[in-house]
Design goal:
Blueprint: E1 5-10, E2 15-20, H1 26-43, E3 47-51, H2 60-78, E4 82-87, H3 90-98, E5 110-115, H4 118-134
Amino acid sequence: MVDFLALTHQPATSVLVARWLRAATPEELQQGYHELLSVATLHKVRYWLLDLRRRGPVSTELVQWVQQTFFPHAARELQGSIYLSYFISPDHLEQLQLQPDWFAEDQGHCLARLFTDERQATEWLSQTRQQEQVA
């Protein structure tokens, strides 16, 4: 267990919540994502709520690693698309709107949305899960 990330599996909703508890180094961020995948694999969960409000800024290199390496690997491990609700601060949302290449809603192997309200983030995951079950 690490001191910078809290992982909570919610079996009733099939959601894995990852809360960054403090700013983390690039190495810790990669370690945290690997921890996230370990728990997701254990519980076979592809619906993730990522609370990034306390995580701190990240480098372009780390964003590329997450998008181009980590998420494709995670989707292969979990044998399906990953659904991500990013719970972020309004300031973080504003920054991402200024850097559109840092966030992609549909990356083929994962579908993601940005939220500044945790309830809305959770509802989107629930609706997406229901839609996938019907399809």
